[in-house]
Design a protein that fits this description.
Layout (H helix, E strand, L loop, with lengths): L6 H15 L6 H12 L7 E6 L5 E5 L11 H12 L8 E7 L2 H9 L1 H21 L9 E9 L5 E10 L1 E3 L6 E3 L8 H21 L15 H12 L4 E5 L5 H9 L12 E5 L2 E8 L5 E8 H9 L10 E5 L6 H11 L2 H8 L27 E7 L14
Antiparallel strand pairs: 1-2, 1-13, 3-5, 3-8, 4-5, 4-12, 6-7, 9-10, 10-11
Length: about 400
């Protein structure tokens, strides 16, 4: 059942006023995102006519925009991504680790998204790999799938990476499997201190190489002395790394990954109302034990916050490291399976249903079911695009 209110409705009603009010500060990426979400699954993008094989009912299905920031376009993309990952799962517990940037670093990140988000990925991966390789902690090479999120529950800028990590890996000489202790990953305080050191080192290098730009309230950081003072302040802060308890093996990891990989800043299901130029939406207050509350924002502020989380063109928000790195994943996973003990390997070799009821990845068939009888809907005709102006324009006039 479609939600009663969507982000697209907010853009349709208040998007043009927002474009005019922020014409001098709205970038091409943000304009394309607004246009894509507004046009998604409407006549603007065309579509096709479907007919049910069983009862004969027909309906028009309009095309999706497929923009990665669109709340309506993530289901099928998530299903395909999870299906591709299924063969990579190992019969071991998995851990969820979160690396979060302090607020003063988040400010720098917002003005330098591509450079600083990339540093966040690299240093989080290096931190896990370095501590895991230390024989005092694990003495193993780990694999990591990392997903960038840039939002908090109230849509403020809050960059962090979610890392899903198998609970073990090959020993450094590749001769045996080294498992994490039951229920324990790696010491988070050690991870946090190394993460801070590695991140600030790379940030300083990026500044020295001229890869950072500063404006508005951060313009003074363009001066080397001011930037050095800011680095000193950041070294004195406590950086947060959070390791959640293990959440099981391959029978749970796909459903778990699906919660994070293709999220956008806010789901349509969280929107409650749009009236008198104000949007009400739900959010979880984790300082109050995750209690669900309702926030009200003016439409202009809601759109501004939503657009804080657009990503630069070509930036990959899902990345793989260690023995899950793209270049050597096949050989590395084969080694992992050989090194796992016979009991675990034997269990993994038997066909299993990795999805509990209600948690299985969606497939294309899930998006072609007859709303009347549950039969299969098949395409019988194309619907051309509307002749309206292209919705993805970056025209600032």
């Amino acid at each position: 059942m479609a939600p009663a209110l969507e982000v697209a409705d907010i853009f349709r009603r208040h998007g043009e006023a927002f474009r005019q009010a922020h014409a001098g500060h709205l970038g091409c990426v943000e304009r394309r995102v607004m246009g894509a979400i507004t046009a998604c699954r409407t006549a603007v993008l065309g579509g096709h006519v479907e007919q049910c094989d069983d009862c004969g009912v027909t309906r028009i299905a309009y095309n999706s925009c497929r923009n990665r920031h669109c709340p309506k376009c993530q289901g099928l993309a998530r299903a395909q991504w999870l299906a591709d990952r299924q063969a990579e799962l190992l019969p071991v517990p998995y851990f969820h680790v979160v690396f979060t940037l302090p607020a003063p670093v988040s400010e720098i990140a917002f003005q330098n998204k591509a450079a600083v988000y990339a540093i966040l990925f690299r240093t989080a991966a290096e931190t896990i790999a370095t501590i895991a390789a230390d024989p005092r902690h694990l003495g193993a090479k780990l694999g990591m799938t990392m997903v960038l999120h840039t939002w908090g529950q109230t849509l403020q800028h809050h960059p962090h990476v979610h890392c899903v990590v198998p609970g073990g890996g090959p020993s450094l000489d590749g001769t045996r499997w080294v498992a994490c202790r039951p229920g324990f990953f790696l010491p988070v305080r050690v991870l946090a201190r190394l993460f801070r050191r590695l991140f600030l080192r790379e940030l300083e290098n990026a500044f020295g190489a001229g890869k950072l730009r500063f404006f508005s309230n951060l313009a003074n950081l363009a001066e080397p002395q001011a930037f050095a003072r800011r680095l000193g302040e950041l070294r004195r802060l406590d950086w947060v790394v959070y390791a959640k308890p293990p959440f099981g093996g391959p029978e749970q990891v796909l459903a778990y990954l699906g919660r994070y990989t293709h999220r956008v800043a806010i789901a349509n299901s969280r929107l409650r109302s749009l009236a008198d130029g104000k949007i009400r939406f739900t959010w979880k207050d984790y300082r109050a034990d995750g209690k669900t509350k309702v926030m009200t924002l003016a439409a202009d502020e809601f759109i501004r916050r939503f657009l804080l989380h657009t990503l630069p063109d070509g930036f990959h928000r899902i990345r793989h490291y260690g023995f899950l790195a793209n270049g050597s994943r096949g050989d590395s996973l084969a080694l992992c399976h050989r090194l796992l003990d016979a009991r675990v390997t034997g269990a993994a070799s038997e066909p299993t249903d990795n999805h509990t009821k209600g948690d299985r990845p969606l497939t294309a068939a899930d998006f072609a079911i007859c709303p009347d009888c549950g039969g299969t809907m098949r395409r019988i005709a194309a619907v051309p695009r509307s002749r309206n102006a292209a919705p993805f324009s970056c025209d600032t006039s």
